[in-house]
Write a structure and sequence with these properties.
mainly alpha; 0% strand; globular
């Protein structure tokens, strides 16, 4: 599996910026599942150059209903389903 060649300090800064800009505080602010899933896909694509649909399935709907942020969902999928292969 090949990884994106972006330096890790840039990815970490980008992920931290993403997390601070995309936290939602109320149900009115919560994105639809499709919007939320697309954000998960953007995170994975930014790291690997592949999307979440190119990787083994994870429990995306459960993560969404558990009110995980997209980053937390990707991190959980990385641990639970992808054997920690993403450099998060």
């Amino acid at each position: 599996m090949s990884y994106n060649s972006t330096p890790s300090h840039i990815l970490i800064r980008t992920l931290n910026e993403y997390m601070s800009q995309n936290e939602y505080g109320s149900i009115e602010d919560k994105p639809s599942f499709d919007e939320w899933y697309k954000e998960c896909d953007k995170i994975v694509t930014g790291i690997l150059g592949l999307g979440v649909d190119d990787l083994p399935d994870a429990q995306w709907m459960d993560y969404y209903h558990d009110d995980m942020s997209p980053f937390d969902a990707v991190d959980t999928a990385n641990i639970d389903y992808w054997d920690g292969q993403l450099p998060l």
